[in-house]
Amino acid sequence: MKSLIEKAFFLKKLRLFNELELELLLAIAEKIQEDDYDAGEKIFAFGQVGNRIYFIVSGQVEIFDEKGKLLSEISSRGYFGDESLFNEQPRAYLASCKTDTLLFTLSRSHLLSIISECPSVAVALLHTYSQELPCRFRGNSP
User: How many angstroms separate the CA atoms of 82 and 132, rounded?
Assistant: First the structure.
């Protein structure tokens, strides 16, 4: 289990959060859940209701479309599931672990409470997210 400060420093290394101050990163880190997955284990299925974003601490995750076609492989410091933070649509892809994987997850409700306390988090997230959106799951890892 990672400490609060280890979680905050991990977040600082992510493009989504690298411009935030340590105080905000610690507030986000308090709400982070840590999940271990085995190689081959499914994280979520196509069509499943989503409400979390997933950050890869270690390991590798594969993203597949509904027909089983590999869309992307994402490694450490990558993230996925972010679309569920901005809409309430079912998952449009399947996520599965290629290797043993450690993930940090953040729920939509936790992120919204952080944003309500500090709107600059939303601005930073939207800025970074809009820069990465065109290449998401087109064979490029974030």
Answer: 11
Helices (H), 13-141: 22-29, 83-86, 108-117, 119-132
pLDDT range class, residue 138, cuts 50, 70, 90: very low
Mean pLDDT, residues 82-94 taken together: 83
pLDDT digits (tens, 9 = 90+) for 22-39: 988 998 999 999 999 999
- List the Cα angle 54/97/8 in 5-degree steps: 30
Second CATH level (architecture) for the domain 4-135: Sandwich (2.60)
Q: Is 111 helix (H, G, I), strand (E, B) or coil?
A: helix
Beta strands, E only, the chain: 33-37, 42-44, 52-58, 61-64, 70-74, 79-80, 94-97, 101-107
Domain ranges of the chain: 4-135
- Going by C-alpha positions, the residue among 18, 15, 81 that lies closest to residue 53 is 81
